[in-house]
Design goal:
alpha+beta; 5-stranded antiparallel β-sheet; 2 helices
């Protein structure tokens, strides 16, 4: 698994957005952080994809709309993760980039760029679901942070 912008647990000055993956028994933990909620969600989704695939730069992408998210920060996070897993399971496409923004009513909307599952290299087990155990998405010390346990 890869790590990017791994935070120092004792130092929390404002950092650029990032995420990290951590093993958890038979599952995986995705942690992400960013100055804004949309950025944190984007980082978390990128981390989710890193759990199971490596996408070549030459892969051909197409845009795929994301449904309006459920109300509440944690519900938004779960909803977006489930949408990625659904796209994998039902349509055989793998998201490679995410474009999210906050809506006027306080929700999250956007799209993702996807590639055919045939164009990626599997590097780990495909996610099966998201656990509500230890799930968090909150504004903490001036930045958005999330913690998600992914069932693989």
């Amino acid at each position: 698994m890869t790590e990017r912008d791994l935070p120092d647990a004792d130092a929390r000055p404002h950092r650029a957005a990032g995420h990290r993956l951590a093993p958890h028994t038979a599952d995986c933990i995705v942690e992400a952080w960013a100055p804004d909620r949309a950025g944190c969600l984007t980082e978390a989704l990128e981390g989710l994809v890193e759990v199971f695939v490596d996408v070549p730069e030459s892969a051909t992408t197409r845009y795929w709309p994301l449904a309006d998210s459920a109300p509440g920060a944690e519900d938004e996070l779960v909803s977006l993760f489930e949408e990625v897993i659904y796209a994998l399971d039902v349509f055989g496409v793998v998201p490679v980039r995410f474009h999210l923004a906050e809506t006027e009513d306080g929700g999250i909307a956007g799209d993702m760029e996807v590639v055919s599952g045939d164009e990626v290299q599997n590097v780990g087990p495909v996610p099966k679901g998201v656990s509500y155990h230890d799930l968090s998405m909150k504004l903490e010390e001036g930045e958005w942070r999330c913690h998600v346990l992914v069932d693989v």
